[in-house]
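hiii so my PI (J.) wants the whole complex modelled not just the main chain, which honestly fair. so below is everything: two entries, each one labled with what it is. i double checked the lines twice but i was tired so who knows lol
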Amino acid sequence: MKNRRLLRKGSSVMLAFLLSLSLWAIFIMGGCLNGIVRDSSLLRALDDSNYYEKSYEAFCEQADVLLEEAGLAKSALQTALPLRKFYIDEKQCMQSMLKEQDISISEEQIKEEVASGIFSYYEEKGITITSEQNVTITQTADILANEYTKWMKLDFLKSISDYWKEIKTKLVFAMPVCIILIGLIIFALCNMYQYKHKALRYVASGILGASALTAVSVFLLKRVTVYADLISEPVYYQDFITEYFESGIHVMGYQIIFGGVLFLIVIGIIYAMRKSVTGE
Amino acid sequence: MKWIAAYILYPVLFTVIGIAVISFGVKPVLKIMDADICMQIINGAPEASMDYELQQTMLSGLVNDGANGEGDTKKEQETTQISVSEPEYGIQYGSISCEKAELLAPLYYGDDEEILRLGAGQYASSKMPGTGGTTIIGAHDSTYFAGLEQIKVNDQVVITTNYGEFTYEVKQVKVAKANDESAYQFEPDIEQVILYTCYPFGVSTYDREERYYVYCSRITE
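here's the output for the full assembly
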């Protein structure tokens, strides 16, 4: 009789541990599917890290050098290609890249806008443009348009999105398997006890264990995953990488709250069942 | 007592054992994912480039014409050899590429785990490229040296450094045990590069016993 009880207890603890691992896997996979793996997380990180504004500043710095070399006024560019246009174009390009649509920026159109912007700038200042300067402006506009379209792309976005797509297909398959496993474990535990609330105590232990494991995983991911240090330049890219991975890890951390809620629900059920058994 | 066991003791026990199980089971997969993500972050940067730490490797000493003084007219001996001082450990001093195998990797001095996470690493006791002798370079098969699986004899491998560009031709490809020292014998008279990575490619087991070696000899500039 005592041996049978010990065997039952040992089996229950092992099943609760398996439940803990399965729930941990679900929490991590759920955190990934709701966070880091989504394209919207990439776009949100670009916004939150002010990537568009900072990359515009960097583009303007590079363009200033080109304009200076061509003997043209630096402030002419900001009339032709203001921040607002750059922001909208870059955002549209990033979204199109993720949706695998064609990027709709026309280099010819940009060239015309830059050239006409520079011409307007000199017209406002009352400066007459010579034929030589005309040629220089056209050539500079060509170079700037080419540079502009390059700045609209971020290779990391496409490559990480494709990488996560492969991971997603595996996660989508693994999650139902874990859910079925959890169902079987709970069913086995309940069958081992006459009073089901005793079995549910082990389920509650498993949920607490899974939440603790998730908390440790999130803590270790934050400490160990220092991707921003891989790249020192440009700084705005470094900020974007930091923002993207930190927010992804935070979403995983929210699963701990979900585990806590689940634990409270199970405790409530245990309390209600115990009350109905003891008649208190 | 029952609730202490159920809500404190068992969860702590599950957490401790769970960490051990996950570390053993999941760590190799996480390492590969980590290396993949690192490569994408580095290659996906805006204006991604292979910039060098110019001050780290100084071109010094005399340039010799590489001839061995015995009238040797072999093509491989008509290359220029130079003397350079070794860069600081962990510094990126160049890049390695092979167009046909779609291989492109930053090249670091040293080959520890942290370096292999970032690119290809040169075994620090081997010669610097372009200075004569054998250079041994390794990288992970799932990231920067994935292209080695497609590399063939006669393909060209280019090592670009901040002191020059050196072209090599693949002469041989073979698989050998990781502890087989004959696979990476240093040949003092031949300037060659030995590229190596884990084998079989793309298998995420904890420890692979075999390595994939690619032997490349320097060719005329």
